[in-house]
Design brief:
It contains 10 helices and 11 strands. By secondary structure, it is α/β, with parallel strands linked by helices. Helix 5 links the parallel strand 4 and strand 5. The longest helix has 14 residues. It is globular. The N and C termini lie close together (about 5 Å).
Length: about 280
């Protein structure tokens, strides 16, 4: 098994927007997806920003997302270079090699590439799907969704739920993706109602936990510093977010060998290198 970090572009924000009280220094951060190469297939954790982002944000209903993309996150993204479908070819893979995709949550910078992998099987949390798919009009961009990325696209989507009969670590319920303990999903509600994180155990014994947007920057976890009030408002973050951060913090303290990676950790590249580098 090999694991790759890929970034569909980079954003730039004042650090204090993503970490309460952290000041106005501008910080560059990635928009991460994780590619896992198994014996017979490829698995993605999130699809990042996709090739259709400009047309998807064109309707007036999504101008709020467009403003966030260009003026808040100040994202640098080239659809013909940075989208995952184009990055895979540079790793000598084809989009059709991706058989399974886990979507941590349906925000546009995580689910944006779903339609770029039309033959994949998708795992989406039922709670997340039920919430996002029922929204209309202004409520969509207030919650950072672009409905056309995931609804009505003819995708093979399996709705999943963490099972309380299988607690995992300090989580009361889990979903074992392949039934072998290698990839286990757990609930982390707050940033989005149905956000799920993934615990990856590699054959080498190396362990990763991908927490998506439970926190943005490492201070959000290590110092348990919340996002700014403005940021929480911009993405309609719920009150459960504090409990989810605390749960990940407790997980981190219980296992110093566990490597926890958020989707917008500004230490990448650096802490880890991006593909074509890989980890085993």
């Amino acid at each position: 098994m090999k694991m790759y970090f890929l970034s569909t572009g980079f954003g730039h924000v004042a650090k204090g927007l993503f970490v309460q009280g952290a000041g106005m220094k501008s910080v560059q951060f990635p928009i991460l997806s994780v590619l896992i190469e198994r014996a017979n297939d490829l698995v993605l954790f999130d699809t990042g920003i996709g090739t259709r982002i400009e047309e998807e944000m064109r309707p007036p209903i999504y101008w709020g997302n467009l403003f966030f993309h260009r003026c808040v996150m100040r994202t640098r993204f080239d659809p013909q270079h940075d989208a995952l479908v184009h990055q895979l070819s540079r790793l000598s893979f084809q989009p059709s090699d991706v058989k399974n995709v886990i979507i941590s949550h349906l925000h546009w910078d995580h689910a944006g590439g779903m339609r770029d992998f039309p033959h994949a099987h998708y795992f989406v949390g039922r709670k997340e799907w039920d919430f996002a798919s029922r929204l209309t009009n202004r409520a969509l961009f207030k919650n950072a969704f672009i409905k056309e990325q995931f609804c009505g696209a003819g995708l093979d989507i399996e709705l999943i739920e963490a099972d309380p009969r299988t607690p995992f670590k300090n989580f009361p319920a889990s979903y074992d993706l392949f039934g072998d303990g290698s990839m286990v999903l757990v609930d982390l509600p707050g940033h989005s109602p149905g956000l799920m994180g993934m615990y990856l155990t590699m054959p080498s014994g190396r362990k990763f936990f991908f927490s998506a947007d439970t926190f943005y920057f490492p201070e959000g976890l290590e110092q348990r510093m919340p996002k700014s009030k403005l940021m929480q408002s911009l993405v309609s973050e719920g009150p459960e977010s504090e409990a989810s951060i605390n749960r990940v913090y407790d997980l981190m303290k219980s296992d110093p060998q566990l490597e926890i990676v958020g989707s917008h950790d500004y230490r990448l590249p650096g802490r880890y290198e991006l593909a074509a580098n890989f980890y085993e």
